[in-house]
Amino acid sequence: MSLNKVMLIGNVGNEPEVKYIEQGVPLANFRLATSERARTLQNGTQVPERTEWHNVVAWRRPAEYIEKFVHKGDKLFIEGQLHTRSYDDRNGITRYVTEVWVDRVENLSTPRQNAPEQPSAPAADTTQAPF
Predict the structure, then answer these.
(1) With pLDDT > 70 as the criterion, what percentage of the chain qualifies?
(2) Residue 100: inside a domain, yes or no?
(3) Total domains in the fold of the chain
(4) Is residue 66 part of a domain?
(5) Which terminus of the chain has fewer CB atoms gathered within 10 Å of its CB, N or C?
């Protein structure tokens, strides 16, 4: 048995990019920042704040939710899976990218004025990725 499950709470680092791919399936991409607070260890050592950036990919219903309700700076709860893909850059060097593929997203930010109520996005149909 194995398990590939990720749960993150962090802030959206850029406006989500949403595009529609084959057969009108929405695909959203954005970066999510999670931070570990600065602290002092028992021996007096100062550990500075550390921010980790995550590449987030959503499609279908979660992508529709992100397109309507998620903006730069929002605090989100993301639940999904880790996926790693590779590509060759313009110099022919193979690069690897690790992404969080969203199954569920919930906006934890306070609602913006004059914005419609923000339900959480239903879980994605993950039986088959659109790409």
Answers:
(1) 84
(2) yes
(3) 1
(4) yes
(5) N
Which residues span the domain enclosing 53? 6-35+48-107
Model-level pTM greater than 0.90? Answer: no
Residue 112: pLDDT over 80: no
**Mean pLDDT across the chain:** 88
**Cβ partners under 8 Å of residue 44, min gap 6:** none
pLDDT at position 110, please? Answer: 76
What is the predicted pLDDT for the residue at 93? Answer: 96
Do the domain assignments include residue 71?
yes
CATH code of residue 22? 2.40.50.140
